[in-house]
Amino acid sequence: MHYRNLGGAGVKVSSLCLGAMTFGEADEKSFMHKVGSDESTAHAVLDRALDKGINFVDTADVYGQDGLSERVLGNWFEQRKTRDKMVLATKFRFTMGDGPNRSGASRYRIVKCCEDSLRRLKTDRIDLYQIHMQDITVPEEETLRALDDLVRAGKVLYIGCSNYAAYRLMDSLWLAKTQHLARFITLQAQYSLISRDIEREHVPLCRTNGLGILPWSPLAGGFLTGKFEQGKPPAADTRLGMKTERFSRYDLPRNWAILDAVRAVAAEVGSTPAAVSLAWLLAKPQVTSVIFGARTIEQLDANLAGAELALSPKHVEALDKASALDLGYPYAFIAATQPAW
User: Fold this and answer.
1) Does 143 map to a domain?
2) What pLDDT is attached to residue 181?
3) Under 8 Å between Cβ of 117 and 97
4) What angle (nearest 5°) sits at the alpha carbon of residue 111, between those of residues 109 and 117?
5) What mean pLDDT do residues 149-167 have?
6) 317 vs 52: CA distance, rounded Å
7) Residues near 84 by Cβ (< 8 Å), separated by ≥ 6?
8) What is the domain range of residue 29?
9) Which of 46, 172, 249, 266 has the fewest CB atoms nearer than 10 Å to its CB?
């Protein structure tokens, strides 16, 4: 396992981050819609991940009903005495509980969410506390000041954001600088060979401001594992097979062409499409750690290969071309004049 600085911070994290979204058997009302592993299986996956060098785990209060994923993690920390062996990331923002303040990023709610997460996780600190999505109903300064207070109190060590528009992220960084507040050090965003939209604005922004990118859904919901075939319905026991409308988002000529390129590279390097897809992201200089999910030890082991696979420049270029993003205006106009952009 390789380790990298968490964005511009000094703490080092494994190049693969274990996503805990599927930890705990969830019901139909939960974020995961009955796609999960029981607590004993989740703990076995965590044990294996730690044994293989993963020291970074990411969850959120909404993963599983009533904070189920956080509670599963908290029990593992307590039973295995592993809290200080892991860099712990969690998130707040989406709906938890009832009432008019059941969601959002107000000071009132952030403080409550943090205290609730600390209790469920059975810990005295959150290493990376992330806002799950921007809240356009709350001034960014209010959100930052609440997070800054938590950092000063020692309940949170670093802060990050997820699913932010580029303009809002830049505004946040400027406020943090001018108001002397804790600043975001990471951006958690959807990023894969299939979804490269953040390369228009977010990647250059993060590069200029020293933020590390934490890609989520790096395998495009499982599409890039290579277990699907064009013209054939997905197996019913797969995530894409459970929701036909999800599969239809990927069942496009561009995406099958990308998958063909991934399979070709995998054959050349003697690896799997999943490992190649993860390695492509890890070859991107602004990526700190790639978040992947594993409901079983077998899934975990299959993805670990991505951390050890170093793609050649030739293979990275081939995948870049196969998955090339339609930049649109004004990005294509700029790139035509300054290709290095």
Assistant:
1) yes
2) 98
3) no
4) 100
5) 98
6) 30
7) none
8) 3-226+271-312
9) 249
Residues 121, 60: Cα–Cα separation, whole Å: 11
Give the span between the Cα atoms of 121 and 115, in whole angstroms.
Answer: 10
63 given a catalytic annotation = yes
The total number of structural domains in the chain stands at 1
CATH for 61: 3.20.20.100
Residue at 336 is within a domain: no
Single-letter residue type at 176: A
Answer yes or no: are the C-beta atoms of 232 and 226 closer than 8 Å: no
161: phi then psi, degrees, rounded to nearest 5: -130, 165
Q: What is the pLDDT of residue 26?
A: 55
Whole-number average pLDDT of the chain: 93
Q: Quick check: 82 pLDDT over 80?
A: yes
Task: Report pLDDT for 31.
Answer: 53
DSSP sequence for 65-112: TTSHHHHHHHHHHHHHT-GGGSEEEEEE-S--SSSTTSSS--HHHHHH
Is 186 in contact with 128 (CB distance < 8 Å)? yes
Q: Which residues pair with residue 245 across a beta bridge?
A: none
Q: Which two three-digit tokens encode residue 35?
A: 């796609």
Q: Of 185, 236, 222, 227, nearest to 206 (Cα)?
A: 185
Please state, as a whole number, how many other Cβ atoms lie within 10 Å of the Cβ of residue 265. Answer: 25
Task: Give domain status of residue 323, yes or no.
Answer: no
Give me the DSSP letters along 142-154: HHHHHHHHHHHTT
Look at phi and psi of residue 97 and say left if phi exceeds 0, alpha if psi is from -120 to 50, else beta. Answer: left
Confidence of residue 236 (pLDDT cuts 50, 70, 90): low
Q: Is the pLDDT of residue 27 over 60?
A: no
Task: Give the pLDDT score at 239.
Answer: 66
Q: 63, 129, 158, 191: which is the annotated catalytic residue?
A: 63
Residue 94 lies in a domain: yes
